[in-house]
Amino acid sequence: MCWMRTLRGVAFALILMGLLAFGAPRAGAQVTLLMEEPYGFFGTINPTGHTAIYFSRICAETPVQLRRCHSDEQGSVIARYQGINGYDWVAMPLIPYLYSVENVSQVPQRADKSAVRRLRTHYHEDHMENLGGDGFEGNLVRGGWTQLVGSSYERKIYAFRFDTTEEQDDAIILRLNSRANRSKFNLLYGNCADFARDVLNVYFPHTFHRYVFPDVFMTTPKQITYKLVHYARKHPELQLSIFTIPQIPGSRRNSHSNKSVTGSLMTTAYVVPIAVFNPYLAAGLFVDYLVRGRYPSGLGKPPALSPDRLWALSYCGPGVETADAPKAEEAGEWAHTSPPIPVSAKYNSCVKENVSTHE
After folding, report:
1. Secondary structure of residue 9 in the 3-state scheme
2. Residues 212 and 225 in one domain
3. Are 127 and 272 contained in the same domain?
4. Are residues 119 and 246 in the same domain?
5. Stretch 200-226: mean pLDDT, rounded?
6. In this structure, what are the phi and psi dihedrals at residue 74, rounded to the nearest 5 degrees?
7. Rounded CA gap, 199 and 211, in Å?
């Protein structure tokens, strides 16, 4: 009879473990693909824009060394850059990346060029000296450290937030920390969108590729975001939510919409010399632009995130929506609707206090 009691005890323990595992909440993590609009002179000649990725669970021990975030840390934005002392990627905390300040209470409602320069310089002197190099700021044709801070003073940003797992985020930390972080930037086939494509393929293997049409084997921000939205429609468990992060006015004109490669050629002055020297090529590009190059005609009206609402990008509750969110029928085919976030929500509200580091 003793063995019967033992079997009953084992069975009871297994059932209890199963019930606990079923009832336990799944540890949440969030990643947000940032599609940043083009601006200025370079944005006119190359209107594809920029791509970065915000990780709510991955933080920067240094700008080039990653670790798991602790509770209430804001995560980091990681992207491929050119002109940052030979580094391929650099990680920056979310608020400084967007606004060049450490706290949202310091974000100005409006900032002219001199104010933006002052904020960037102050943050660079206090926190970015460990990047080394000559402190090159950047110019019209080559980037510098100013790419890393104050992005929202330059352009409007679309944020595509989706759920991930701890294991997936750990794989990204290990991948980036263990590989040589030396510049691989190439505008055609090693740009910021290629970096995002490689990272997203860690989360969703064999999903993101280069395409002949409409981007001539290049990877563009609009192509990556379109593919992510298309993939998320087939996988609702990703809980994709879309937001905008408005441009802070005062320092430059409003940024303009992201375009594909054929869209860049067909809607700018490039179309004139192409049509003159090879009208057949121009006609082919135009047809490709009409059929494939526009992707969805618009992003609709995703809810806008003010600086004090950015925790929506790392909130792991049942819904991600702001109070001024548009109705679903007004937001277009890219829209995602969900219940409101509780007022008490905060950054990384589901991150465990006991986290491991990855050297």
Report:
1. helix
2. yes
3. no
4. yes
5. 87
6. -90, 0
7. 18
Residue 200: the pLDDT is 97
Tokens representing 26?
């799944």
Contact (CB, 8 A) for 248 and 254: no
Domain encompassing residue 287? 261-294
Tokens of 244: 């905008």
- 119: confidence class by pLDDT, cuts 50, 70, 90: very high
Distance CA 33, CA 115 (A): 28
Q: pLDDT tens for residues 14-62?
A: 433 443 333 333 445 799 999 999 998 877 888 899 999 999 999 999 9
Task: Please give the tally of structural domains in the chain.
Answer: 2
Name residues whose C-beta falls within 8 Å of residue 23's C-beta, 6 or more positions apart in sequence. none
* Of the candidates 299, 290, 303, 295, the residue with the CA atom closest to the CA atom of residue 341: 303
Q: Both 202 and 287 in a single domain? A: no
9-41 b/e with 16+ CB inside 10 Å = b?
Answer: eeeeeeeeeeeeeeeeeeebbbbbbbbbbbbee
The CA–CA distances, whole Å, from 175 to 65, 91, 171, 199 equal 11, 14, 6, 9
**Is the pLDDT reported for residue 295 higher than 80?**
no
Residue 251: closest CA among 333, 154, 171, 320: 154
**Bridge partners for 163 per DSSP:** 30
Tell me, yes or no, whether 98 lies in a domain: yes
Asked if residue 172 belongs to a domain, the reply is: yes
DSSP state of 54: E
What's the pLDDT tens digit per position in 323-353? 344 333 333 333 333 334 443 445 565 555 4
Amino acid, res. 146: T
Q: What is the pLDDT of residues 128-138, one digit of tens each?
A: 877 765 567 76
SS3 62: strand
Q: pTM for the full model?
A: 0.80
Q: Clarify whether residues 232 and 288 are in a common domain.
A: no
Bond prior to 214 in cis (omega within 30° of 0)? yes
